[in-house]
Design goal:
Elements lengths: L2 E4 L5 E4 L14 H13 L2 H24 L7 H29 L3 H7 L3 H34 L7 H26 L2 H25 L1 H10 L1 H10 L6 H28 L4
Antiparallel strand pairs: 1-2
Amino acid sequence: MSTDTTGPTGTTAPTPAGVLDVSGTPAVPFTRLVSVELRKALDTRAGRWFTASIVALCLVVVVIYAFAAPEGATDYGDVIGVSGAVLGYFLPVLLILMVTSEWSQRTGLTTFTLEPHRGRVVGAKFVAGLILGAALIAVAALVAVVGTLLGGGDWSLTADILVKGFLVANLVGILTGFAIGMLLMNSAAAIVTYFIYTLVLPIAVGILSAFQEWFADLAPWIEFNTAQGVLFQEEGAPSGELVAQLLVSGTIWLVIPFVIGLLRLLRAEPK
């Protein structure tokens, strides 16, 4: 017994008995893929507790800062900078886990079977990461409100602090975590690499810059953290030279790893 299917030239070709023809099955909606990725990020104890721990740590650090900061340093702009710094340090780890969990927990075998077009899965993960990151950024802003109330500061907030020190910094963190996760596809290796990149590398660059003037001039061109530090310290729009430094160092440390990681993830075999 066989059924007929229409071939690529419009001719009718028989389908062998016992073979299920799913060629006419509609694709999984992208919004459903995004909702699944959000659910996977939070439906395990590790995901829930880590997300809750980030919020709790932001709150604890902000409360301590509210009571320990000198007078005049507890305005909303000051406190949101503290809250954003704590969030920006750990948010990339959450993105790393969203990407690498498919490989460390072998759920990719199921995910890529149900949705074989990996590009759509990666896109859904990225959008889900942006949504989750935006939600945590909003929570961090609310935590800063609590710190401002406890510290008795005013509600002054400059555009530089909000845009560059809070929003841009956390967005770069999201992209960095996603890129490292795709590049290594292993939770432990990616997290260790991230901490080396954010802790060890800037310290090493700072030491070399302190002793070698030529390297201090070169550092913003080849080290993305250094260029970002200059961006966050400058007031107003960045200069043309700083924009060029961000583009060059960002290409080296963010764009290239992102592209290589994406190509590797799209071709890797789940095991």
